[in-house]
Amino acid sequence: MRFLHTGDWHVGRGLRGRSRGDEFAAALDEVVGVATSEGVDAVLVAGDLYDQRAVTADADTIVFETLIKLFEAGIPVLAVPGNHDSVARLAALAPLLDRIGVTVVPRMKPPKSGGFVEVPGRNGTESALVACLPFVSPRRFSDATQLFGDLSAGYVSFDEGMGDLLGAFADGFASNRVNVVLGHMFVSGAKPGGGERQVTIGADYAVSPAKLPGTAHYIALGHIHRPQAVRAAPAPTRYCGSLLQLDFGERDQAKSVVIVDAE
């Protein structure tokens, strides 16, 4: 199967009072063009579609037009929210977005109750199981673990707890599927891009690379704006990076999307 991994769009962010709507629209047109020309089975969006929880009409127009173009090209989209997104808003929009081939998993869910999304391949011979991990902050982590029964009782640290959650998903992987993790999180050792909220890339939010499931074919991450591989991870893991250079600290970074082949 073939995927396009993107994320950290941050649509709606300006620069010193200047709108960057035209830049975001042009970059997302490129994303649609790459997805179409590469014949991907699905687009994976690893959070932070928007820059602010209070979304402007202009930002909505850019995001919705992109999603409609992908739908018209016959390419499904799977997305999780990041720390900049409004979870409640995406949850409310999810039934509408589903009508245009966009699956949003707005909140952490157990593997057997919506945490896994199955994505069929275009050729009809393979399909993927995508474990969806929306952004969870340490202060809300206990709320997420309540869904996983006994996991909440053993919670000691955020890193340990996230390892248990990731382990629960790894236990649900299937040998006859392409197994993928789609998440918005900070993995220890990742090099920040410069435009992230500093509080969310500190030690309290860090997940050790060793906690990532080694049985995944690919781990698609968002949150860190610098495109990079997580080399200490036990499975192929990558941050797609932000869609644009979001501030002057990112000015020298080449932005990209990732094309992933897995079988």
Provide structural commentary:
The N and C termini lie close together (6 Å). This protein has five helices and 13 strands. It has 263 residues and is of the alpha/beta class. Helix 3 links the parallel strand 3 (77-80) and strand 4. The mean pLDDT is 92. It is globular, with a radius of gyration of 17 Å. The strands form three sheets. It has a six-stranded mixed β-sheet with strand order 5-6-7-10-12-11, with no helix packed on it. The protein has a five-stranded mixed β-sheet with strand order 4-3-2-1-13. It has a two-stranded parallel ribbon with strand order 8-9.
Query: What sequence of helices (H) and strands (E) makes up the elements?
Result: EHEHEHEEEHHEEEEEEE
pLDDT averaged residue by residue: 92
Question: How would you sum up the global shape?
Answer: globular
Measure the end-to-end span. 6 Å
Percent strand equals 15-25%
Binned, the helix content reads 10-25%
Quickly give the structural class.
alpha/beta
Q: Rg to the nearest angstrom?
A: 17 Å
The major beta sheet can be summarized as: 6 strands, mixed
Q: In which order are the strands of the major sheet placed?
A: 5-6-7-10-12-11
β-strand number: 13
Low-confidence stretches: none
Question: How many alpha or pi helices?
Answer: 5
